Structure formats: structure tokens, C-alpha cells
Amino acid sequence: MKIPRSHPRYDSLVRRERLVRAWKAGIVVPEGLIAHGRGEAWDYLFGEMTSAPALVAERAAAAYLLAAARPVISVNGNVAALASREVVRLAKMIPARIEVNLFHRSEVRVRRVVRELERAGARNVLGLRPNARIPGIESKRALSHRDGIFGADVVLVPLEDGDRAEALVRMKKTVISVDLNPLSRTIVDELTRAVLNLCKFVDELKPDETETLRVRRVYNRNGNLGAVYSFLEWRLGRLRRSVTRGGMRSKSASQPSSVR
Ligand code: PTJ
Fold first, then answer.
1. Which of 46, 78, 228 maximizes ligand 1 atoms within 8 Å of its Cβ, making it the mutation to test the pocket?
2. What is the pLDDT of residues 109-164, one digit of tens each?
3. Best of 159, 166, 176, 187 to mutate for ligand 1, by most ligand atoms within 8 A of CB?
4. What are 18-65's pLDDT values in tens digits?
5. Average pLDDT of span 14-21
6. Which among 62, 65, 152 is positioned nearest to 101, based on CA atoms?
7. Ligand 1 centroid to 75 CA: how many Å?
8. What single DSSP character describes residue 129?
9. For residues 198 and 62, what is the distance between their CA atoms, to the nearest angstrom?
10. Distance between alpha carbon 249 and the CA centroid of its chain, in Å?
């Protein structure tokens, strides 16, 4: 489907198209489309834009990735569909390894996701021949590489399920995840926006070790999450006022793009 650029929710519709195309190509599972819908609902409330606290968390994440000895980016079906090019760019900038790690794992799909990343310019993507298991995980998500997630000190896990994040934290790794669900205690932002911001901050911080160290020192995850909730409260208040002023007929008043 051709989406007109003038559409107020152009970016969101493009993301849907990418996911549907990737589902048809066997890269994304049907469950991935459902998961995206949950993310979209949150993004709608956030105004489909990166909040100031998310930017702070992304800058801190860039600092952690730059300071890592063995940084790894974990990629699943949705991430490959939405942000292969951006992930590859980020991996090259840090530099970090990329490992395909799927919840609904099949060898065929791992191969497809690896190929998608290679098409976007990645080399030596891990995931096809795992040689370790993350302790405490029953699902196939436990399968990992010693040179990749298993041996990493900092892991970026966009669209994370909580179980694996906890297991990785138990292994004493720094885990950075991105999820629009504010209950997830992560960087609360849309994945494609977050990866682009990470690229920007890595570029900015890379030449400045002192600032990178300072950013890591001052970052306070709980304080940041508190700020995310304050932002959401402000957004909801604003949406409520615009809906009650215009009445329920004024649908556009509740469109996030109209209050950007
Ligand atoms: O490719 P696989 O087999 O590894 O499976 C991928 C999915 C996404 C199906 C799997 O990881 C899964 O079931 O994920 P969950 O537990 O449903 O969590 C997905 C989370 O991602 C939800 O909390 C959504 O809010 C969030 N989400 C979805 N799309 C986006 C998002 N967050 C940020 N940006 C998005 N584009």
C-alpha cells in the first residue's frame, strides 16, 4: 500500500507496512504483530514522540555501550523488520556485535533474520550456531553465543521480554532494553526512534571520554522512570482537556500528531 507522506500518522503507518511485509517474508511471527499493537497503543498516549526522559536514558545508554568491553545488540524478528539498517549502523559505530535471538525460534527464521541484517550491511552476525545457554531461562531464548550475548558485558535488547533481561542481570551484565510499555522499567521509547537517537548520542559522545564517564555516573534509572510517568500524566491531562473542550466528535483533538 502506498502511504501519502502528508498523512498525519505517516511514520506509524510505514512501520505497520514494514511489519506486515516482514511477516509475509517469514521474518516476523504473527505474535510480533500483536506485540507491535501493544506498543502502538502506548506510543499513541506518549504522542508518538520521544519524551525528554527517554532522550536522557538514550544518552546514558549510548555512554554505557561506548564504555563496554564486549557490547552486543540482540535482534529479534520485529527489530529486523523495523530497524535493520539503523541497528547495523549503530553496531558499526560503537562497535558492537549483533546476535539474532528469537523467542519463537526456528532455524529457518534465524537464517532469514541474519540474511535481512546482512542485506542491511551487517557482517559476522551471530545466532545460527549457539554454543551456550543463559542460565534460568526455559525457552529457546536461552540459546546464545559465547562470543555474543553469553559473553557480553553490556547487552542492548530492544523489545525485551522481562525473563531474559532478569537472567542477564543475574549474570552481572548491564542490560539496556527499549520498550514503549512504561511498566517494563526500560528506555520507554519507540524502537526505531530510540535506535536513531542512540546513533546520534554515540556519535556525539565517542570523542569525549570525560563526558561519557560523567553521563554514566549521573544517570539514575529510577529518577528517569519517575520523569517518564510525570510526562505521561501531563500528556493524559492534555488529551483529556482537548477531548472535553472539543467534545467526543472532535477526533482530531485526540490525535497525538496534533499536539506535537
Ligand atoms: O521474533 P521473536 O520470535 O523473538 O518474537 C518477538 C516478539 C515481539 C513477538 C516477542 O519478543 C514478544 O512476545 O514480545 P512481548 O513480550 O510481547 O513484548 C513486546 C513488547 O514490545 C511490548 O511490551 C510492546 O509494548 C513493545 N513494543 C512493540 N512494538 C514496539 C515496542 N516497543 C518499542 N517500539 C516498538 N516499535
1. 78
2. 999 999 999 999 999 999 999 999 999 999 999 999 999 999 999 999 988 778 88
3. 159
4. 999 999 999 999 999 999 999 999 999 999 999 999 999 999 999 999
5. 96
6. 152
7. 11
8. S
9. 6
10. 35
Cell (9 digits) for 43:
506510543
Name the pTM for this structure. 0.93
pLDDT digits (tens, 9 = 90+) for 247-259: 544 333 344 433 3
C-alpha cell of 100?
A: 539474532
Cell of residue 164, nine digits = 531474559
Supply φ then ψ for residue 170, to 5 degrees. -60, -25
Give the cell for residue 190: 519507540
Q: Write out residues with Cβ below 6 Å of ligand 1.
A: 29, 31-32, 35-36, 38-39, 42, 76-78, 82, 102-104, 159, 161, 178-181, 184, 190-191
Other CB atoms closer than 10 Å to residue 236's CB: what's the count? 11
Burial 165-196 (b: 16+ CB within 10 A, else e): bebbeebebbbbbbbbebebbbbbbbbbbbbb
CA of 162 to the centre of ligand 1 (A): 11
